Amino acid sequence: MSLAKSSSTDGSESLPSLTFTRTFDAPRALVWKVWTDPVHMAAWWGPDDFTNPVCDMDVRLGGTLKIDMRSPGGTVYPMTGVFKEITEPERLSFTCTPLDDKGEIIFEELTTVTFTENSGKTTLHIEARILWKKPEADAYLTGMEEGWRQSLVRLGSQVARAKVSVPAEANRELINTRFFKAPRDLVFEAWSKPEHVARWYGPNGFTLTTHQMDFRPGGMWQYIMHGPDGTDYDNRVVYEEISRPERLVYLHGHDKDNDPEAFHVTVTFAEEDGGTRLTMRLVMATAEQREASVKFGAVEGGKQTLSRLDAYLATLG
Q: What is the CATH number of the domain that holds 104?
């Protein structure tokens, strides 16, 4: 790790720049994923004991980054950014712009990360360079070096966890994504009330009856899906995380306690080109359960469900 200050030719105050080098016992593709998957990044970004209740990443050239860092005391530090360079899995560059309580930028940092693999291990070279700052930014920048140091320790822990879990999850997951020409708030709202989900949830030909929907963390949604052949399917959803309008996490199973076939669902809502990019990730309990779901029609059913949502959103516009 090294700390330097950029040279100034006009006599103005020079700006800080940090560089770090870290090596992780994991393949480059995995370390890249821990940097570019919002689920992973939310688990390690920031100093010790900070959390990231909002972590949205549109990882493409010109795509945006939005993170709300929450301190142990509950103070939220919002940050936005833009991806400037993406060469998977070799190089990643993005800006970080922390915001004050008025939503104004305090300073702008350019972070550039290179990923080099050798014998199954990955070495990161990270440069964090301040491009410009307001005078009040000094209070934030004082802890910049230590904050990065702690964050990279957390990154190492997350890489270790991912090294164990990612291969297993890859055999158990289903992912659906769709772009909607509708604002993110509206798309999220369509998931949050029984009168909305009744109009679109489920594959073509299915209808839905909701018994109760308590849309809050720890709350429950109990409903019956009525198949076109007359078969009824009881369902129970338990909400684990609701970060409006960015992210929704829940456990989905049959309407009974301790269902061994219950699976986790993460739905993310990202603003894109004036609309919303929705990604729905299902992680089954076992690889066999995933295989059975695919044979039952889960992939096509998911596509039909999101298509129905698209049609319903058009009626709300």
A: 3.30.530.20
Shared domain for 74 and 130, answered yes or no, is yes
The DSSP secondary structure of 133-183, one letter per residue, reads E-GGGHHHHTTHHHHHHHHHHHHHHHHHHHHHHHHHHHTTEEEEEEEESS-
Walk along the chain (317 residues) and give the pLDDT tens digit of each residue: 444 544 433 434 578 899 999 999 998 988 999 999 998 999 999 999 999 999 999 998 999 999 999 999 999 999 999 999 999 889 999 999 999 999 999 999 999 999 999 888 999 999 999 999 999 899 889 999 999 999 999 999 999 988 876 555 667 888 888 999 999 999 999 999 999 999 999 999 999 999 999 999 999 999 999 999 999 999 999 999 999 999 999 999 999 988 888 999 999 999 988 999 999 999 998 888 888 988 888 989 999 999 999 999 999 97
Domain that holds residue 116: 2-167
Pair (135, 242) in one structural domain = no
Measured CA to CA, the distance from residue 71 to residue 147 in angstroms comes to: 12
Q: Of the residues 148, 167, 186, which one is the last residue of a structural domain? A: 167
Residues 179 and 226 in one domain: yes
| DSSP conformation letters of 228-294 | TTS-EEEEEEEEEEEETTTEEEEEEE-SSTT-TT-EEEEEEEEEETTEEEEEEEEE-SSHHHHHHHH
